[in-house]
Amino acid sequence: MKRTLLALGILVGALTIATAPAQIVYSFEPEDLHGFASSAGDGWQVFRATTGVTHGDYSMGVLWPTGSGGFRWLFGNGVRDELLPYLQLSKKLLLDATADATVPWSNMIVSLNGGYRDGDDRTYGWNQLPFSTGLPRVAGTRTVLLDLEPLPLPDPDIEWFQINFGMNAGGSHQLYLDNLRLYRTACEMMAMDFETPGDLYGFAPDPNNLSVTVSWNNGKMRIASTGGFHWIFNGTVPGLLDMLQRGDLLVMDVTVVSPPPAGWGNMIIAVNTGPAGQSGNWSQTSYTAEIAAGNNTFTRTIAIDYRDVTYHPTPDYCLLNLGINSGGPWTIEVDNIRIYRKAVEGDVNCDGCVDDADLLSVLFEFGSTDITPADVNGDRVVDDADLLTVLFNFGSGC
Q1: What's the rounded mean pLDDT across residues 169-198?
Q2: What percent of the chain stands above pLDDT 70?
Q3: How far apart are CA 286 and CA 300, in angstroms?
Q4: Of 253, 251, 200, 261, nearest to 228 (Cα)?
Q5: In the chain, what are the helix, strand and coil shares in percent, each to the nearest 5?
Q6: d(CA 175, CA 281)
Q7: DSSP secondary structure string, 22-71?
Q8: For the chain, first and last CA: distance in Å?
Q9: What is the pTM assigned to this prediction?
Q10: pLDDT in tens, 339-352
Q11: What is the C-alpha to C-alpha distance for residues 146 and 166, in angstroms, rounded to an integer?
Q12: Closest C-alpha among 193, 188, 182 to residue 218
């Protein structure tokens, strides 16, 4: 009995120490920050920080000097096995970003760079995304989605392989990055898929606004605008409010059919949950998702962090509203609007409920050293600590 209690105590101790989320790519816990720490210069600073921490004890801080904004590349360390095995599973990543001040705009582009094979003097160079990802423009933490699907991965025997962040902002401030992790499709709740011909789930512009049109086009919602800012109102499905309350990211696939001539276009969202016919019940996100970039046409997945949206306590209805903005005429198509579930500790299959299915997942993969959600604490082995995490949280979220 004493041995059992001692073993349990050891496992509980391990549980409190090893709390990394499953499938985490970069935790920014190491002092070298995966190589990013010495990459800036010219008055910029990249440093280990305790602000904006969403996992562990540390984050990576980036300082734009006083009176400056602009662009700077931050290069990763080129340790292939820190990055490549994860991207071979998924090329969509989530990253928590925290700003300390309000700036006119802030965004990031991403590149992947692969180096030499053994005995090969060729370099594989840069592969850069054709679009940028929005970062927080106001103080607070937001989760951003890095869609790396357009970028090729190097050959498996490449010697070094790095991820690079191109940071850009319209003013001096500090930004903190933490908890770079795999995006999991298992965490998605589908809200609107636009598969039924003509069904736009209520989305429509103001009838008096002749500068924007909304139509159904081959399984997608097409939005054509003459430029500037426009609201697309009233998208809804049964249970939308419940889904929104169980998540914190609104995700959708967006195709840029014709890009705006000024080279930029973005989106915000708002939720209306008050009684029908009453005004003043809009709650709008502070996060702006960037969509278009230059004169490129492409399809990308965007995510909008709506954790700062508030809800009416007794809603009669819940409406989703899309606010689109561009520097000139453009046409986009929206598809597969879904909600990304909030993390529940011990929820291995990401259905929002810690139950027998999660317990079985850990048991079936017990002993595995693969990158798997069953490795709940992220220590690269499925063991007793993961089992205890599920047991201690059994019933959460259900």
Answers
A1: 95
A2: 90
A3: 21
A4: 261
A5: 15, 40, 45
A6: 31
A7: TTEEE---STTGGGGGGS-BTTBEEEEESTT-SSSS-EEEEEPPTT--EE
A8: 33
A9: 0.90
A10: 999 988 899 999 99
A11: 12
A12: 193
Residue 118: pLDDT band by 50, 70, 90 thresholds?
A: low
pLDDT given for residue 316 in this prediction: 73
> How buried is 203 (Cβ within 10 angstroms: 0-12 exposed, 13-18 middle, 19+ buried)?
buried
Q: What is the largest CA-CA distance in the chain?
A: 77
pLDDT band of 19, cuts 50, 70, 90: very low
Taking the domain 2-10+346-392, which CATH number applies? Answer: 1.10.1330.10
User: Going by C-beta distance under 8 Å and a sequence separation of 6 or more, which residues neighbour residue 300?
Assistant: 131, 147, 149, 150, 253, 254, 256, 291
Topology match between the domains 2-10+346-392 and 23-183:
no
Q: How far is CA 2 from CA 5, 6, 8, 9, 387, in A?
A: 5, 6, 10, 10, 21
Q: Side chain identity at 298, as an amino acid letter? A: F
Residue 100 CB contacts under 8 Å (≥ 6 apart), including other chains: 51, 139, 173, 174, 175, 176
DSSP per position, 143-174 = EEEEE-TTSPPPPTT-SBEEEEEEEEESS--E
Class of domain 188-341: mainly beta
**Domain locations in the chain as residue ranges:** 2-10+346-392, 23-183, 188-341
- The DSSP code sequence of 297-316 is --EEEEEEE-TT----SS-S
Instruction: Name the region of 34 (left: φ>0; alpha: ψ -120 to 50; beta: rest).
Output: left
User: Would you call 90 exposed, middle or buried from its count of C-beta atoms within 10 A (0-12, 13-18, 19+)?
Assistant: middle
Torsion of CA 367, 371, 373, 375, to 10 degrees: 40
136 touches 97 (CB < 8 A): yes
Q: Which of 115, 135, 142, 28 is nearest to 71 (CA)?
A: 135
71, 74, 62, 73: which is closest to 36 by C-alpha? Answer: 74
Render pLDDT for 315-345 as a digit per residue (tens, 0 to 9).
778 899 999 999 999 999 999 999 999 988 8
Q: Which CATH entry fits the domain spanning 23-183: 2.30.29.30, 3.30.565.10, 2.60.120.260, 3.40.50.2000?
A: 2.60.120.260
Q: How far apart are CA 131 and CA 381, in angstroms?
A: 36
